[in-house]
Design a protein that fits this description.
It contains eleven helices and two strands, in the order αββαααααααααα. The C terminus is likely disordered. The protein has two domains: 146 residues, Orthogonal Bundle (Photosynthetic Reaction Center, subunit C, domain 2); 155 residues, Photosynthetic Reaction Center, subunit C, domain 2. With 379 residues, it is mainly alpha-helical. A two-stranded antiparallel ribbon has the order 1-2.
Length: 379
């Protein structure tokens, strides 16, 4: 190869390749920025209209079903084995069941949760899980308003028409050493993991913070100082776990650090945007749902629905947000389903009241006779 050919053909090609590699991680224009802090602090949110359009299309809430009449007999008095939502009228109950089908299993239909030969039957694990998830949604809307506000959530917020939400997490398998590598001990990190935005930060920030209650704030007031209090030590390793959680939150909401933090003083709550307090409650809300509702259901799931360590799918920020800071662009779906806004306690049966209607009485939906009815325990 002549020097002239190398200079005029090979070198430009090599330079173009290097340039392309360097730009691979950059955001393709156009981009816009919105200042949300004082001038000079660098508190800006950078948006890409092209990507925003994709997110908007993916976060459209479905139209609500037509309202149903509250008049008429209650679902608990007509149908068998109604352990939640029994206070709804038959029309309201039917509307809710239809909505759940559209939110969670539009392809599978009612058969995803029900034995169509006996709708009262609890033999399908999906029905047992769905019942508990209704209770979880009620609890979330009633008791976590400091995170969900008046917007609330429905099954669709997480499921988006999928039987299993697309954004869930399991405990990762143990990997003590990198295979065929000189890296040695992985130390729970050192992999380009999608859970932390492709970084080499600890790839399981969820177990310590969204299942366990490990301290998240790691900023110390003295350089390289450990006071001996293991619960509050601010080691580099602990900081990396915190950063891993922050990267997850940033990616899940489609924002950068300045959405919740003031760049002049990341530690200060007084100078932080109000979203930081909302995020504070969101972390604790996710932990509550994982501990109180999802983990206890482990034995209800078949083995193929469990993770590599035998744990259930659990929620994190991405489960609801899915790339946008307000799930479903803030659509207030829950207001159209007031049965999901409060936890309703079924009244205890009065002493001496009959536990069954007339034996052998047929029930709607091809269900078993009343003599075979399985009653809900009073709550």
């Amino acid at each position: 190869m002549s020097a002239n050919v190398f200079r005029h053909r090979v070198l430009p090609a090599m330079a173009g390749l290097v340039f392309a590699v360097l730009l691979a991680g950059c955001e393709r224009p156009p981009t816009t920025s919105i200042q949300n802090g004082f001038r000079g602090t660098g508190m800006e949110q950078v948006n890409n209209p092209r990507k925003d359009a994709i997110l908007v299309a993916k976060n459209q809430a479905p139209a609500p079903a037509d309202a149903a009449s509250p008049d008429g007999p209650k679902a608990r008095d007509v149908y068998q084995n109604v352990k939640v939502l029994g206070h709804l009228s038959v029309a309201e109950f039917t509307r809710h069941m239809t909505s759940i089908t559209e939110w969670v299993a539009p392809q599978e239909g009612c058969a995803y949760c029900h034995n169509l030969q006996n709708l009262a039957d609890d033999s399908k694990y999906t029905k047992v899980i769905a019942r508990r998830m209704v209770e979880m949604t009620q609890h979330l809307n009633a008791d976590w308003k400091n995170h969900v506000g008046a917007t609330g959530v429905t099954c669709y917020t997480c499921h988006r028409g999928n039987p299993v939400p697309q954004q869930v997490w399991y405990a990762p398998p143990d990997r003590k050493y990198a295979e065929n590598s000189v890296m040695g001990d992985l130390a729970g990190q050192n992999l380009a993991s999608a859970s932390v935005g492709g970084t080499s930060l600890p790839f399981d920030p969820f177990t310590p913070y969204l299942l366990e209650d490990k301290p998240i704030r790691v900023i110390g007031d003295k350089a390289l100082k450990w006071t001996g209090n293991a619960a509050n030590r601010t080691t580099t390793k602990q900081a990396e776990h915190t950063y891993a959680l922050m990267v997850h939150m940033s990616n899940s909401l489609g924002v950068n650090c300045t959405f919740c933090h003031n760049t002049r003083n990341f530690q200060s709550w007084n100078e932080a945007p109000p979203q930081r307090m909302t995020a504070f409650h969101g972390i604790r809300m996710a932990r509550d749902l994982n501990v109180a509702y999802l983990e206890p259901l482990t034995k209800s799931f078949p083995a193929e629905r469990l993770g590599p360590k035998g744990d259930v799918a659990k929620v994190n920020c991405a489960t609801c947000h899915q790339g946008i800071n307000m799930p479903l662009l803030g659509a207030q779906m829950a207001k159209n389903h007031p049965e999901l806004l409060a936890v309703f306690k079924e009244p205890a049966m009065p002493a001496g009241a009959a536990a069954e209607p007339v034996a052998g009485e047929a029930k709607p939906g091809g269900e078993a006779p009343a003599a075979q009815r399985v009653e809900a325990a009073p709550k």
